[in-house]
Structure formats: structure tokens, C-alpha cells
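During the second year of the project, the team shifted from modelling isolated chains to modelling whole assemblies. The rationale, set out in the original proposal, was that interfaces cannot be judged from single-chain predictions alone. As a representative example for this report, we include one of the complexes processed in the last quarter. Its constituent sequences, exactly as entered into the pipeline, are reproduced here:
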Amino acid sequence: MAAPKYIKGKEPHKSEYRMIFRNVDRRGWDTSIKSYIADGGYKDLKKALKMKPQEVTDEVKTSGLRGRGGAGFPTGVKWGFIPPNNKKPVYLICNCDESEPGTFKDRYIVHQDPHQLIEGMLISCYAVGAKVAYIYIREEFPEGAKILEDAIEEARKKNFLGKKILGGKFNCEIYVHRGAGAYICGEETGLIESLEGKRPYPRIKPPYFPAALGLYMCPTIVNNVESLCNVKHIIAMGGQKYAKIGTPRNTGTRILCVSGDVIRPGYFEVEVGKITMGELINDVCGGLRKGRKLKGVIPGGSSAKVLRAGEKYTIGTGESERTIGINEIPMDFDTLAACGSMAGSGGVIVMDDSRDMTWILNNINTFYAHESCGQCTPCREGSLWMKKITDRMVSGSGVPSDLKTLTSVGDNIAGRTICAFGEACAWPTQSFVAKFPEDFKKHTSRRNAGKELNPESKAAAAGLKR
Amino acid sequence: MSAASKQTEDLVNVQVDGHWIQVKRGTRMIEACKQASAEVPHYCYHPKLSSPGNCRMCLVEMGMPPRPTPGQEAELDNDGHAKISWMPRPVIACANTVAEGMGIRTQSTLAKECREGVMEFLLINHPLDCPICDQAGECTLQEYSVEHGKGESRFLENKVKKPKNVDIGPRIRLDDERCVLCSRCVRFTQEIVDDDVLGFVDRGSHNVLTIHPDKPLANNYSLNTVDICPVGALTSNDFRFKMRVWFMRETKSICNGCARGCNILISSRENKIYRQTPRENNEVNSSWMCDSGRLNYHLLESDARLTDPMMKKGKSHETVDWPQAIRRTAEGLLKYKGDEVAIIASARMTNEELYLVRVLADTLETKNVDTLKCHGEGDDYLNHKDRRPNTNGAKAILKLRSPGSRVNSIKKGIESGSIKALLVYGENIESKGFDDGVLSKLKFLVSSHILANPTAKLSDIVLPGASYAEKRGSMINATGRLQLLNKAIEPPGNSRDDWEILQDLNCAMDGKDFIYELADLFSEMASVVPVLKGFTLSGIGEKGASVIETGETIPLLEREAQRVNQGLIVG
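Output from the structure prediction step:
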């Protein structure tokens, strides 16, 4: 296979390791199965079908692949949760409800390389014993859904899916299911409810762990788009070789989606943990705009706790313990967790010193108040309450007690809800208020009553004059 | 063996607020706490419905003994149980089951903070209209506010506005602002009555309960949703704004609408009934009852209610006093002997009343005794096709093999002139063909009713009786369960408890000794009616006792039992 050439202006950065995004922005590439097969596509499916399903699972376990959707749970271990003496059908669901603000990776796979996903899914279906798989794609990707449906038809014609795949005993169908525009459908049990035709109210765990009681109360594996694509590459190179990419316990590559106040925002596929936050911002993304200083970074999608420039983090244990600053954080699962945040969905949002954190939190709060499904009390009532408080703050009606109230509302949500949305909506509030109190106090002091202190609107006004 | 290691197959050791108890394996944490007298507040949890765990009010602290490393003994506490390692996150007590060695803290700082937080969240957008809310006094928001709420609000924002006074069905009104979105009503309509018309729309804090467009909540069990609504969101059109609940007296009784005999509470004040609600009995009606049974008390307030004994004078009736009515009835019946007299009794009567009818028939030496067979349409839930509450009692006491089978021969007897006197008790027999033409052939007709009707109109003497809510007694339902009827209010005017009327009549007929107490009457009856052998009136108990094996099953209970077996509900 020749090294791919990329569209001018969209060439990968030299620090990148293109594996999943190998064909994204590739010159002369299209979504047809012809392109894909010419590039060696579906060879790994053939290879997997010659293995035993358990061997495929074992390779994934050996690879150390961790889920790319947000939680970072080991994929092979998740597959192993299907009850051993299961008699019910097993389902595989590809979670393509990419909705976390700041995240835009799965959409490129779907739009530019659908067959990679289909191949990854078919191998995964074979491994877990699923004869039916669903791609749950968010409502906002209508083109993506069409591309996937076309790709599925192409693959069926070539007998990569359907009955007796490639002349063997393996049967598998993939269906594309479009969502209706709700963030909560990305939560796996909410997704399952939605797929069953109901309101996407997440289920309580226990007892409804999808691997045992998932879709139609049958064992169900829900994996992210990027995770499933990785399976194809694990089979291609073998789990052990894959595990050498990245760093120990944080193997493989990760697509980081950088947005916000950097010169060159975008998506970058890098080896997990081989690049630091500073390298990502200053090298890969071209640094901050002229005259600006880094204020904070949300490292893993809008629900991840914010990191403040200038903070010190203690990572590692025993002899390897060391203190680092924000720029030295290696972009991997474990270090970001040790720094009090998370790698999440890979959405890195960079904020410079022109930003007022109250406005940013208000923006985030507005999103979560709108997206809370409203099933359980703390999140339903708390997410809107937090939004209303920050609404008041940014419109010049903040009062001194607001900070304390905001924090305690967040505290009363996190850890007390049915699903992780509780944390997703509480963590921003908890972390922003704790780490940038001066920004918030500005809005709650009586001196500023009635004033809308928005540096962004000032900047926008200045831009208009120019 | 230490206390901790004493673990049978069915029981597990659980620590609740520091005290160890043994509960059945598979018990929900919330029920285990209840057994340990630690009430865990909750909104969405209902033992008869599935547990979505959405209200988060029952969050408690939970811990388990850590799995010991192989080869090592588990570390023990002073009390001999394995040391519990407590989880940092609270868990819901409603949907999780206990496990051996589990610890539950319902009063820890974390548990209290969780409850206070949820309470605050539930109230910030609540309209706080308790003064005009029908649920006041039986509202869990109010109750838990007292225990777990704050004295003041720190909510400075505008409340979310939602629809109010929404007509969601013929008998129910919805106030979405009061709703805590616990989904009990939704689950009831889905899981119990298969009428999936309720649901939530919109999202987040703007979520509202609503009905399916064009499909009102109109099933015959709809009012149960009002009972299980923990707040004032669903109110009954029949009851709303009529009476504050704390003024009402509750009488435990049974519904007389059909042969099911649903256990009920009759709520009354100053001799007026305001509502009837189901009373849990897992052998009869679970926690439910039908709307028609629930609302049948309005019959008692009918304008057609008979309040005085009456005698025919010419073409109309005139009021008489009881001694006169009883004497003239006895005289009228005693003119005829043996099978010249017929008695049509009713399976609406209590066992005690029926027994007195049997005594009367023995005195008159007539075999022409029967009740009516009144079958209608039953359903697949609780409603029974037999529209009479005590058919099994009538069978046992009047020794009827097939109630209603002699009615035709009685009619023929009247038409042929062989039957000259008829006593009708509690039934309008016109519907069974006893019209003017037939009844006018009789020499003497006495009847007892609570409402004026064509049979009463043709009677020589009319004896006004008491309704099911105005008397005490026992009945046997369709599944052979002996149950108690209790007096909630007094019969109106000069109408009387029927057993007393019959007792007076028997006394006037043969001059035998009086029985002064219903309990004594029951005991006498129990000594001659085999199925009642060994029972006393007070020994029946609030939930009744099975006395006849009828082989009948109750569709709704069968399904609930199945769901209990599947672990979906507690039951």
C-alpha cells in the first residue's frame, strides 16, 4: 500500500499518526467500495472470519483498546460481559450519535470512510456473535446516513454482509437508524430505548447493563464509531503490535478535535499519550492568536472538567511521581484523569485570556439545560437552575450568593442521577466556578449590577468597526 | 458459628443504620429498610409497578465487605460480620436488591444531603399552591418537606410554567406544574391496565405529562392513577374541592359493585361519603379498584331513596311507623302457608341477612326461595361478570345450587295462583319479567329496597333498608373469600339496617328470642352453615379469609404474580 497523498491545505501534521483517519482528506479518495477495496479494504474481515470469534476478542483484549466515546472503558473487556451461557440473540450497536460539544471526529469517518466502519463492525459482530447490528446516527448527519446506507448496499453486493458472508457460515445485517436530535441518545441505554422506539430515558444500572439486558432485553454491545474502526486495525496488525502504538494502558491512536482560540483548529490523529497539551496547542495547532495568553482548556468535550493555565498537577505514583503544568500533560486517558479531568470524547476546547468564563459556562449550561432528558430529578431541575443563574450573571443581575448556590446545585447533581449526564452537566459548573472565581465574582458584585460584561461582544463590536 | 456466618439459603444478613437484620434474598433495599423500621422516602417507587429509579429520593449510602484476597480471611467487625467498605456514591434503594453482608445507611450525612437536594429540586419549580390543592394532607411533597426540606428557598429565578387544569379524561384533571414526573401513572396505564395513553413530552425541566392526542385517559381503572399520584398533579373530578382529606373518617369495607369484593376505604364526614378508594388486599384486588365501583356511592344520595316504611292505600302509598309495617307484614305473610309464599332475596344482602331470610323461610315452611342471577360484562382485570357481591354467600346460606333457577317457577306459580304472597328483598324484579300483570295476581306483596322502583310501587308494604355503606355484615366473594362490610354512615331518615328489619320480622312471625348483636347472629349462623364453621364476625379480619375453594382466578393478580416472579415488581 502506497502512502496516501492528501488534499492541498489539509495535509496531516507531522506529529500525527494517521490510521483511522488515513483516508480522511485523501487526494483521489471517495466513499465507494471500489476505492476501499483497491486500498486493501475488507481483507481484515476475511482474516477475522478465518479466526475463532474468541480469538478476535482476545486480540482486542491484548490490544488494550479503550472506548473512544468518552468513558475510555476497555473494549475487549466490555465484549466479555456477555453472559457465557447466553441463549438470546446478541446485538451490536455503533454509537454514531456524536453530540458532545467540541467533538467532530466520527462524522469524518462516516462521511469519508464508511467502509472502514462497516468492516470494523462486521469483525466486531463476528467476535461477539451478533447477527444484527445497528448504526445509530444522529439526526444532524442526514448525509452521513445516506452514505452509510449506500455503503451497506455496496458491501451486500460483494457479500461482505448479509447471508453466508464470503461463503462461510457467518450471517450479519447492519441497519442504519437515524436519531431525532437529542444529546441523551448518545448515552448507551438512552440510545437503546430510542432504538426500541421509546423516549431515550436512560435505564438504571443495575440491572440494565446492556451486555446482559440491552436492546429488547438481549445482550447488546454498544461501541463508538472510532472504537469499532480500531478493531479492523487490531485484526490487521495483531493485538500485540497495536498495543505498541501509544503508551502502556493508553494504546493506539486518538483523534483529537481542537476548537477554540488556536490558529489552526481541527482534527488530529495522534498516538495516545505521545503528545502533550502544549505540543498540541502550540505546535500542532499553531499556537494562540497574537498577543493572547492561554486561560484554560477543556480537554475531553464540554462535559470534561476545565483545566486552568498555571495549575500544577501531580501525576504518577512512587518514584515516577512528578509535578507538571498544563502544557506538560500527555494527552492520554490516565493522566488527564489524574489531573482531575478526562480524555472524554477527544474534544479539546482552548480558551485564551480574551474569554470570560462566566459566558463560557453559561453557554455550556444552556446546552445541558436544553439536552437534559428530564427523567430524573437532580439533572432535570438542576441543569436548568444552573443555566438560569448564569443567565442572570451575564445579563447583569448576579447576586453575591450565586457562586455558592451554583456550586451546591452542581454538587447536588453529580453522582446522584441515573446516567452520566448528571456529571456531564455538573462538572463544568463545579470546575469553572472553583477554578475561575474571579471571573464569576465580577458578575456577582454589586458594583457591576446591571452591566453586561461580555468581552466577546466587545471584540465583536470592534470587529464590526474595522 | 458466629452470627455473621449463619446464612441460610433464603436469608441474607444486612446492616441497616448499624443494626443487623436478616431478610429474604432478593429483597429490595428499600423493603429491607422498611423491615428494619427505617423508612426511606420515595416518590416513583411503588411495589406493584416497575422501578425506573427516576425520583432519586431514596438515595442511601451502601457498602459491601471487600472481596477478600485469596487465602486471606475477611476482616471482621466487633459484631462478627465482615467489615463493610462504604461506597462513595449513593445508590437508589428502590431498585437494588440486598446481598449478604451489605450495609445501608439511611441517616448518614451523605444520605441526608441527597434527600435534601432532591427535595429542593422538586420544589423549585413547584407552584406551592398547597392551600388550594386537593392533595394537601396526603401529599408526599408536603410530608417529606417537613422532614427533609429547607426552611427557606434560595431559588431566585422564574419558575417554569406548565399547563394547568388539563382535561385528560372524563374523570381526571391534570396540573402539570404540580407533577414531579415520577411516572407512576404512566407505568400504571402501561403495566396494569394495558391502556398506554399517558406519556411525557418535551424535555428537561420542561417535561410534561400528557395524554395521547385523541385518546383520553378513560379506562375503567383510570382513577387509580389519582390514588398513586404522590402529589396533587392528578385529581379526581368527583372529589376535587369537595373536602379536605384530614376531616374525613376512613372506614374499611368492601365494594358491592360486583362479585370481586374489592377491599375499599370509605371516606366520609358528618354522614356523607366523599370518596371511595381501594384498600390493598393481595388476595382480592391488589391495590386497585374500578372507577364504576369507586363512584357507586352516589347511588346513596339519589332522590329516589326510600326513607320511611310505607303501606299501600288505594293507588298510592302512605308513610307508616316501623312497628306497624312489621306487624302488617307478619300478618300478611302468616295468612298463607307453605309454598303459597315465595321469597326472592338478593345476593346484595349480607350473609347475616340471608341467614334471617332462611329462618323466615323455615318459619313459613316454603321452599320457594331464590335470588336473582344478575350477570353482566366482566373484564380481564378485576371486574366480575356476576354483578352481585354475595352470590357465594347466598348459595351457601340459602342452600341454592344455582341461584336464579327457581325464579321462573315462582313466576309461573304467581301466574297460576298457587303462590299468593311474595317477599322481595333488595331487587327490582320487574327486569326479570315480574311486571304489573304478574304481580297484580298476588294477594300480598312485600318488598324492601333502598331506592324507589317499579317493584316497590306495586308492593303492599315497602320496607326501606340500608345500603352497603350503612351497615355491617359479611359476604363471600367470587373467589370464596369471607369479607367484612363495615358501616361508614347512618342510613337516611327512618330507613334501617336490614338485619334488624328481618330480625323484627322473624320475631313478629314466631315470637322467638331476640338476638341483639350482629356478632351473635353471625355465631348462630356459623354453627349451622358448614363453610362458616369456626368463624366469628370479629375473627374475619380486615382482609378476610378464604372459606370456599371456587377454582376461580383473578386475571390481574395472576399477571402481578408473574411479574413478581420475574423480579420486575415487589408485589
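The domain at 357-465 of chain A is CATH 1.20.1440.230 (de novo design (two linked rop proteins)). Chain A touches chain B at residues 182, 199, 201, 204, 206-207, 369-378, 380-385, 388-389, 392, 399, 401, 405, 411-412, 415-418 (CB under 8 Å).
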